[in-house]
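Here is one chain, start to finish.
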Amino acid sequence: MRTTFSSLVSKRDIIMVGLLAAIFVLAVSYSVLSATTISTNINTDGTLTVTGASTLTGAVYASSTLQATGVGLFYSTLSAGASTNSPVTTFNVSGSGYFSVALGVGQATTGQGNLVVDELGVFNSRLGVSGTTSPYQELGVTGDAALGSAATTTLSVESTSASQGGCIELRGENNSWVRVYVGNGGGTSTTAFQMSTSNLTNGGTALLVVEQGRCQ
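Its structure:
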């Protein structure tokens, strides 16, 4: 009789311990699956994986790579490589930028290597086209250039200085240079070709000079 009572007590203890363990597991699972507010820092030496949506109302700092395999939406300003956390523009990058496909400004584009600007594009330094990485002038083009328009196509070469005029320079196959410009006086070279021109609309007479040498 004593053995039977001890056996019943042992079985009851085992059942109680099992019930308590099950209740604890369910409570922990519920707290993890439901919304949790943590008012202190979270430090992890491994990977933090979140399968649902995460809403971050404060600043996010990444000392290494910050990667998003899906769509990343930023509803405020975004600063990359900047020393300030308050950029004055919506997208601020201090350093180099690389786009593997295309970049569209004011117009969407998906063409490989395309740069599409819908409105005015301003380059404060030099611009190289078709592989020209170090143009010696403000615009450097390796290859041909085609100008076209539905109306009259105009090529304007002018200078903002009153004492200087527009000039076109051509290099021959023997590496000699010839310049073409409009001047009031004669050419400085003995081989210069001069042609008198008169503008009946605006008035004035000038000389079209073709001579050896460069514009600058």
